[in-house]
Amino acid sequence: xxWSVILLSLQVSGLALFFAAFIGVPFGAWLALTRFRxxxxxxxxxxxxxxxxxxxxxxxxxxxxxxxxxxxxxQWLFTTxxxxxAQAVISTPIVAGxxxxxxxxxxxxxxxxxxxxxxxxxxxxxxxxFEARFGVLxxxxxxxxxxxxxxxxxxxxxxxxxxxxxxxTTAIVLETRQGKFDLAVSLGLVLLGLSFxxxxxxxxxxxxxxxxxxxx
Amino acid sequence: MxxxxxxxxxxxxxxxxxxxxxxxxxxxxxxxxxxxICVIVGPSGAGKSTLLRILGMIEPPxxxxxxxxxxxxxxxxxxxxxxxxRVVYLFQRPLLLxxxxxxxxxxxxxxxxxxxxxxxxxxxxxxVGLQHLTHANTRTLSGGEAxxxxxxxxxxIEPDILLLDxxxxxxxxxxxxxxxRVIRERNQQQGMTIVLVTHNLFQARRLAQQVGxxxxxxxxxxxxxxxxxxxxxxxxxxxxxxxxxxx
Lengths: 216, 247
Fold this sequence. Notes:
Structural class of chain B: alpha/beta
Distance between the termini of chain A: 49 Å
Distance between the termini of chain B: 43 Å
Number of domains of chain A: 1
Largest sheet of chain B: 6 strands, mixed
Mean pLDDT of chain A: 91
Number of strands of chain A: 0
Low-confidence stretches of chain A: 211-216
Largest sheet of chain A: none
Low-confidence stretches of chain B: none
Strand content of chain B: 25-35%
Strand content of chain A: under 5%
Largest interface: A-B, 19 and 27 residues
CATH class of the largest domain in chain B: Alpha Beta
Radius of gyration of chain B: 18 Å
Shape of chain B: globular
Order of helices and strands of chain A: HHHHHHHHHH
Number of helices of chain B: 10
CATH superfamily of the largest domain in chain B: P-loop containing nucleotide triphosphate hydrolases
CATH topology of chain A: MetI-like fold
CATH superfamily of chain A: MetI-like
Structural class of chain A: mainly alpha
Mean pLDDT of chain B: 91
Radius of gyration of chain A: 20 Å
CATH topology of the largest domain in chain B: Rossmann fold
Oligomer: heterodimer
Shape of chain A: globular
């Protein structure tokens, strides 16, 4: 039971992160590298969405997928698809905002220099984002951390169905309610371990990159 | 036979929002000859870099137009990639990628889809005297080394025009010597047109065939180097050459 819960947690959060990265990385980079009328409004909305209460997202996704909602025919409610959707909505602004901050930190004239060296605008944008790769990686880790630790939205749209939509966080809630504190604490430690693993991986990557810099 | 004039500037002005006077004003026609070293001198804030960015098609002029090899470029024209790729503008700071020296120098070839040109890249690195740092990450370089890598990165492309914005500012004499030598070599051996901006009159004397003086955003004198230094027309040019405080 434990392994299936862990695997499902990783699967749902990983897939949600994939969609969040697919939208959030280019969107964040675009916001960092362009100036246009109304940009500050988009930024204000993005910052607001970075702090979206998960339970509110859960409610929105629930209403969209419920029998009376516009996407009822998908029949995703109380499935892992709904959980992925909710987590992707929660983590996309976090990924986009963090990527924007990272790319904004790159020397502003670098893109113009790369264009002058013959890069196409898309290629120059890609190379500037690559220059901010550690920040982008950090954005992905932050997004994954938000996904894996999220409980309110997945509880609402997934329903915490055993063997089907039960993930680590919803299992902890259930076991606590049932008074099985030993199991709840164990599951909590597994969750902490996963977070530690992801952050450790980031640290290794960072150290390895620094190591390369020091070695030359 | 190709036109000996590669750049023709017609009444160029560049204004920025919030500034009443234009940042750059080049009244009348200014011409730059193919294969020569043209140096624009003037104090800091005179508009030299802005003029260079217009020549590099990085910023369009607000009014007026530029003819680059008989192609018109103005506020409403986007330069074609094929034209843009014939000109390389080097910013004052090296602006290198956090990769190896080799990867940085190879950048212009890579984005053009030119592969397997290791010798060409190595030659460019050797020309600036950094062959011992070929595989070093650019984060480990000194300011002078980084500037030389930036120059090699531009030279490897072999552009028709090389635009250099204060390429030796804040560098020690040894690095200045290397950069000036490379500029002269490329100009003499390949006929590369080079436009260089500096506030260093001595450097202008050492390199220039044609010299322009900018003051307060305006090109006030533009002449052959000998005429510019020996018989300037504008009294402000004479004062600038003498080292008087004219700004």
